[in-house]
C-alpha cells in the first residue's frame, strides 16, 4: 500500500472534497483520510446548498472549477432563486438536495478522479520536523508521509454532543469524535478555541397534517447552479411552512433549566445568525411566533428536516415542543435535535493562503477555522487545496481579493479579524457586493481558475462561448432601436426584464439564449453607472494591495507606531498594506506610518 503522498486531506466533508479535488486537478498525488468513506459529502444538518450570499459562493466555487455546484445540480430536488423582489446583488440560488444521492455522487466523482486515494482511517497525530509537516499517524498505526496537509475535521475535534443533561462524545450523530487531533495541534503550538452548533429534529413525512401548512414550491423553471449545465432534468418536490406559537414558547421557557445552553453545560459560543429555538424565544421575546420550514431530506426516505427549531432540550420536552406546532400534533420523531461543541483553530493563526503561520505545509479549511455552513467550508477547502498544491509545485499562491469574490471576503475576514462565534457569509459583509453577483461569477473567476490549473478544456470552452454570446447580445442591445430608442436605454426600465425582451424582439428569441444569460447582460446595462463607480473605488483599494509587507517585519523597530497597533500587527502579520488597514484597531494614521517606513 502506498504510504507517501503529495497532499493528505483529513476529513471527507465539503471542505475535504474540494481540497483533495483541487490538489488532484493540479496533477498531484492526493490522499483523503476519513473514518467512513461512505459518508463523504454527508450533510450533517439541512441538505440544502446555497442561500443568501452562500449561493453566490457556490457559483464562485463552480467558476473556479470546483465540484459543489455540479453535485448539487445532479441531486437537487427543489431549486429556488431567493430575493427576486430586490436588487441583483442579493439574488441568490438555493437548492434542496437529496442528501444520500449527493453523498454517493461526491464519493463517485472523487474515486474516478486520477490522483485521489481514499483511505478509511482516523488520524491520531500530525507529525512535523523543523517547523514543517511530515505526515500523519493513523489510529490503526499506519504512518503516511506527505509534503502538505489540509485539515478539514469539521465538528469532530473533541466533539461533544448534548441532549438535555446527557452528554456523549461524537463528531456528529453515530460517528466518533477525533480527540487526538486536538492534542496533536496543541503540541505543534497551535491555539484552539471552543464553538457550538446544533441541528433540529427529523420527523416522518406521513405523520404530518399538511392541511395546516403553507406550501413552498420551487421555481417553475429551475436554473442550474453550475455554469456548465443548461437545465435541470429531475422532478422537483414541495417544501412546507408552519409556525411556532405561544404554547411552544411556554414549553421552552418552562424547561430552560434543562437546556444545556442555559445551565452552563455548554460553554462554546453558538452561531448568532442561526440560533437555537431556545435562544430565539429569549432574544426575541416580543415575537409571538417563529417560522418553521419542513423540508424533505431525500427522495429515498420519508425523513423531514424541521428547519428553524434547532435545540438541545431533553427528548420528552422535544416531543411536547414539536406537537404544539400546527401540523405536527401527531408527528413521529426519527431523530431528536442535539447540540454539539467542538474545537476550532482561531483563524488569525493562518496566512491568507490558509496555511498556518506556526507549521509550514499545514493548511486548515472549514469549521475548524470557525466558520459555519457547507458553502463556506467548500470555498475554503478549494483555496486551501489549491494553495497547498501551488506551493509544492513552486508556484505563486492563489489569493482572491475582496472585490473579486465572496470567497476572498470570507478568507480576508477570517485571517485578518478572526472570529469569536461561528462565521457565516452575508452579502452585507462585502463592500463591493454589486460587483459580486451570482450571474457573473464565471466572468470574475474562471480566467483565474484556468490560470491556476483548475479549469479544464471543457469548462473553458463553455465559458468562452458564454462570454461571446454575452458580448454579441450587449452589442446588439446598444445598437438596435426599439420604438425610437436604443434597446439598452429601454431596458433601464425596471419592468422590462429578460422575459419582456425575448417576447418583444423575436430576433433575439430565435437565438435561444438562456434566460439567465440575457438577464445578466440586462443587469450589466442597467447598473453600468454604479458598477463604474465601484470599479473606481476598487482601483484605489488595489493600490494598497500591491504594497507588500514582509511576514518577518520588525514592528517593534517602528517606534512611531502606537503600542496597540504594534501588537495587532505582530499578531496578524499582514502581507499587504491593504490587509493591515482592515485589522481591527488599526487607524489611518498607523497606515501612514507604515507607508513612511516602507519608503525609507
Descriptive account of the structure:
This protein is an alpha+beta fold and 600 residues long. The protein folds into four domains: 4-196 and 342-452, FAD/NAD(P)-binding domain (3-Layer(bba) Sandwich); 202-341, Elongation Factor Tu (Ef-tu), domain 3; 457-531, no CATH class; 546-599, DNA polymerase, domain 1, CATH 1.10.150.570. It contains 21 helices and 22 strands. The strands form five sheets. Strands 1, 2, 6, 7, 8, 9 and 20 form a seven-stranded mixed sheet that branches. The protein has a six-stranded antiparallel sheet with strand order 14-15-16-17-13-18, with no helix packed on it. Strands 11-10-19-12 form a four-stranded antiparallel sheet, with no helix packed on it. The model has no long low-confidence stretch (mean pLDDT 95).
Defining traits:
alpha+beta, 18% strand, 21 helices, 600 residues, FAD/NAD(P)-binding domain, 7-stranded mixed β-sheet, Elongation Factor Tu (Ef-tu), domain 3, 6-stranded antiparallel β-sheet, globular, single chain
Amino acid at each position: 500500500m502506498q504510504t507517501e503522498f503529495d497532499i493528505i486531506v483529513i476529513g471527507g466533508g465539503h471542505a475535504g472534497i474540494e481540497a483533495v479535488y483541487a490538489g488532484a486537478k493540479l496533477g498531484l498525488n492526493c490522499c483523503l483520510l476519513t473514518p467512513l468513506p461512505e459518508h463523504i459529502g454527508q450533510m450533517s444538518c439541512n441538505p440544502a446548498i446555497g442561500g443568501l450570499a452562500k449561493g453566490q459562493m457556490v457559483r464562485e466555487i463552480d467558476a473556479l472549477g470546483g465540484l459543489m455546484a455540479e453535485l448539487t445540480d445532479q441531486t437537487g430536488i427543489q431549486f429556488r432563486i431567493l430575493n427576486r423582489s430586490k436588487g441583483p446583488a442579493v439574488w441568490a440560488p438555493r437548492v434542496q438536495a437529496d442528501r444520500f444521492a449527493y453523498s454517493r455522487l461526491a464519493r463517485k466523482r472523487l474515486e474516478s478522479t486520477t490522483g485521489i486515494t481514499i483511505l478509511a482511517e482516523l488520524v491520531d497525530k500530525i507529525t512535523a520536523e523543523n517547523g514543517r509537516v511530515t505526515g500523519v499517524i493513523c489510529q490503526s498505526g499506519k504512518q503516511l508521509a506527505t509534503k502538505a496537509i489540509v485539515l478539514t475535521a469539521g465538528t469532530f475535534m473533541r466533539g461533544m454532543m448534548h441532549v438535555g443533561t446527557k452528554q456523549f462524545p461524537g463528531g456528529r450523530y453515530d460517528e466518533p469524535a477525533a480527540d487526538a487531533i486536538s492534542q496533536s495541534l496543541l503540541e505543534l503550538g497551535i491555539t484552539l478555541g471552543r464553538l457550538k452548533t446544533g441541528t433540529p429534529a427529523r420527523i416522518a413525512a406521513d405523520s404530518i397534517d399538511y392541511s395546516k401548512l403553507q406550501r413552498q414550491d420551487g421555481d417553475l423553471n429551475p436554473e442550474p447552479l453550475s455554469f456548465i449545465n443548461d437545465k435541470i432534468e429531475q422532478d422537483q418536490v414541495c417544501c412546507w411552512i408552519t409556525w411556532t406559537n405561544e404554547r411552544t414558547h411556554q414549553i421552552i421557557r418552562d424547561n430552560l433549566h434543562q437546556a444545556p445552553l442555559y445551565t452552563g453545560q455548554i460553554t462554546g459560543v453558538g452561531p448568532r445568525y442561526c440560533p437555537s429555538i431556545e435562544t430565539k424565544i429569549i432574544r426575541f421575546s416580543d415575537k409571538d411566533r417563529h417560522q418553521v420550514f419542513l423540508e424533505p431530506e431525500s427522495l429515498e426516505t420519508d425523513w423531514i428536516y424541521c428547519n428553524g427549531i434547532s435545540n438541545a432540550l431533553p427528548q420528552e420536552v422535544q416531543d411536547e415542543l414539536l406537537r404544539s406546532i400546527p401540523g405536527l400534533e401527531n408527528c413521529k420523531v426519527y431523530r431528536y435535535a442535539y447540540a454539539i461543541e467542538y474545537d476550532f483553530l482561531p483563524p488569525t493563526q493562518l496566512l491568507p493562503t490558509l496555511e498556518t503561520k506556526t507549521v509550514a505545509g499545514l493548511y486548515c479549511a472549514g469549521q475548524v477555522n470557525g466558520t459555519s455552513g457547507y458553502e463556506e467550508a467548500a470555498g475554503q477547502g478549494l483555496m486551501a487545496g489549491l494553495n497547498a498544491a501551488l506551493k509544492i509545485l513552486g508556484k505563486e499562491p492563489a489569493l482572491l481579493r475582496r472585490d473579486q469574490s465572496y470567497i476572498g471576503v470570507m478568507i480576508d475576514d477570517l485571517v485578518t479579524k478572526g472570529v469569536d462565534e461561528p462565521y457565516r457569509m452575508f452579502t452585507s459583509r462585502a463592500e463591493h457586493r454589486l460587483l459580486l453577483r451570482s450571474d457573473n461569477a464565471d466572468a470574475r473567476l474562471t480566467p483565474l481558475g484556468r490560470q491556476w490549473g483548475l479549469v479544464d478544456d471543457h469548462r473553458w470552452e463553455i465559458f468562452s462561448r458564454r462570454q461571446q454570446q454575452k458580448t454579441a447580445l450587449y452589442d446588439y442591445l446598444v445598437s438596435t432601436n426599439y420604438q425610437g430608442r436604443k434597446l439598452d436605454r429601454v431596458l433601464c426600465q425596471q419592468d422590462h426584464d429578460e422575459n419582456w425582451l425575448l417576447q418583444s424582439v423575436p430576433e433575439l428569441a430565435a437565438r435561444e439564449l438562456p434566460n439567465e444569460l440575457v438577464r445578466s447582460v440586462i443587469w450589466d446595462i442597467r447598473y453600468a453607472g454604479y458598477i463604474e463607480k465601484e470599479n473606481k473605488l476598487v482601483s484605489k483599494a488595489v493600490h494598497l494591495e500591491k504594497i507588500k509587507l514582509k511576514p518577518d517585519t520588525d514592528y517593534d523597530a517602528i517606534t512611531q507606531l502606537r503600542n496597540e497597533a504594534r501588537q495587532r500587527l505582530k499578531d496578524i502579520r499582514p502581507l499587504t498594506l491593504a490587509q493591515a488597514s482592515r485589522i481591527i484597531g488599526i487607524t489611518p494614521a498607523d497606515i501612514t506610518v507604515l507607508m513612511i517606513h516602507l519608503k525609507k
